[in-house]
C-alpha cells in the first residue's frame, strides 16, 4: 500500500501498518453471545459474518500509553490531533472473498485523507484510514474508516420524547443498549474509550447525556438486520453516522430492499432523529 506524501500533520507523516493474526473462533463465538445468536453455528472454516472483522487487528496499546479519554495517546498510526472529541463518522467496505474463521489473515493500512475544516461548532479534522485484509493470498475486505475530531464544545442534548412510528412496509427491530451490553462490546473490540462505559466521564467531561452507543456496534446491528432478511452474500456495506445514540434511550432499526440487490437501512432514535444510515449491496 502506497503512502500519500502530501499528507502530514505538523511533524507527523503517515506510515504503513501491517498486522497478522488468526480469526479466532472463541472471539467470534463471544460476539455471537452478545448478539443472542447460537454460537455452535460458527465453527473453524465458517465464513465470518459482515462487520465482525472489527473484532480483529485491534491496537494493543500499553496501559502507560492510554490518554485521559481511554484512547491510546495521540500520534503513531493516527495523527496527533489535539481536539477533544474523537468520533467514528462512517465506513465503506467492499467484500471480495469471505474471511474464514480459524485461519490467519493480514490487515495492511495507512492514512489516505486528512482534511481540516471549520464547522458550526468550530474547528474539525476528518481523517480517513484505508485497510486491506488478505487471507491465503486473496484480498477479502477493503475497508475505509472516517474519523472526525472536534472541539468539546457545548453539551449534547438528550433525546426528546418518544415519537417514532413503526413503518408498515419495512423490516423493524427495536433495541435498547444498557451499560452491560456496551461494556461487553467495548471489551470484545478492545475499545477503552470512556464514553462507552464511564457515565460520569461521558457526562461531565464530554457533555453527553449518557453513555454513547458505539458507531461500529450500531452499524453491526444494521448489517445483522440485512443478513436476517436477505440470503445472498454481501458485497458492499457502507454507513454514515448522523446523530449519536445514548443509553438508556431505545432506538429502532429499519430497512428494506429493492429488486436490484440493494438494502437501505437506518437506525432511528426514540425521538425520530436519524442516527445512522447504511446501504448494503448483495450478489
Written account of the structure:
Helices cover 14% and strands 34% of the residues. With 283 residues, it is α+β, with helices and mostly antiparallel strands. The protein folds into two domains: 153 residues, Hotdog Thioesterase (Thiol Ester Dehydrase, Chain A), CATH 3.10.129; 129 residues, Thiol Ester Dehydrase, Chain A. The chain has a ten-stranded antiparallel beta sheet, with helices on one face. Strand 4 and strand 5 form a beta hairpin. The longest helix has 15 residues. The chain is globular, with a radius of gyration of 19 Å. The model has no long low-confidence stretch (mean pLDDT 92).
Architecture blueprint of SSEs:
Layout: E1 17-22, H1 25-34, E2 85-95, E3 104-119, E4 122-135, E5 138-150, E6 171-175, H2 179-188, H3 199-204, H4 215-229, E7 234-241, E8 251-257, E9 262-269, E10 274-282
Helix pairs in contact: 1-2
Helix content: 10-25%
Determine the number of helices (DSSP H or I, runs of at least 4 residues).
Answer: 4
Low-confidence stretches: none
Euclidean distance between termini CA atoms:
28 Å
Strand adjacency order, main sheet: 1-3-4-5-2-7-10-9-8-6
Just name the CATH architecture of the largest domain: Roll
Amino acid at each position: 500500500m502506497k503512502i500519500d506524501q502530501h499528507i502530514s500533520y505538523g511533524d507527523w507523516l503517515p506510515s504503513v501498518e501491517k498486522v497478522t493474526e488468526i480469526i479466532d473462533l472463541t472471539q467470534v463465538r463471544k460476539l455471537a453471545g452478545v448478539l443472542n445468536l447460537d454460537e455452535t453455528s460458527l465453527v473453524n472454516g465458517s465464513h465470518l459474518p459482515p462487520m465482525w472483522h472489527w473484532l480483529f487487528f485491534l491496537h494493543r496499546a500499553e496501559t502507560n500509553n492510554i490518554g485521559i479519554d481511554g484512547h491510546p495517546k495521540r500520534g503513531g498510526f493516527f495523527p496527533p490531533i489535539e481536539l477533544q472529541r474523537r468520533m467514528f463518522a462512517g465506513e465503506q467496505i467492499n467484500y471480495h472473498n469471505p474471511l474464514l474463521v480459524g485461519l490467519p489473515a493480514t490487515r495492511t493500512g495507512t492514512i489516505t485523507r486528512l482534511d481540516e475544516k471549520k464547522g458550526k461548532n468550530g474547528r474539525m479534522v476528518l481523517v480517513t484510514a484505508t485497510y486491506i485484509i488478505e487471507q491465503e493470498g486473496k484480498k477479502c475486505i477493503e475497508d475505509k474508516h472516517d474519523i472526525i475530531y472536534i472541539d468539546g464544545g457545548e453539551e449534547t442534548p438528550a433525546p426528546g420524547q418518544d415519537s417514532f412510528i413503526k413503518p408498515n412496509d419495512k423490516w423493524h427491530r427495536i433495541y435498547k443498549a444498557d451499560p452491560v451490553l456496551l461494556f461487553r462490546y467495548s471489551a470484545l473490540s478492545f475499545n477503552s474509550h470512556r464514553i462507552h462505559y464511564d457515565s460520569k466521564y461521558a457526562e461531565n467531561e464530554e457533555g453527553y447525556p449518557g453513555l454513547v452507543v458505539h458507531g461500529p456496534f450500531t452499524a453491526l446491528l444494521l448489517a445483522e438486520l440485512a443478513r436476517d432478511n436477505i440470503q445472498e452474500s454481501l458485497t458492499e456495506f457502507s454507513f454514515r453516522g448522523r446523530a449519536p445514540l445514548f443509553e438508556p434511550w431505545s432506538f429502532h432499526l429499519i430497512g428494506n430492499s429493492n429488486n436490484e440487490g440493494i438494502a437501505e437501512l437506518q437506525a432511528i432514535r426514540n425521538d425520530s432523529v436519524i442516527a445512522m444510515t447504511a446501504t448494503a449491496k448483495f450478489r
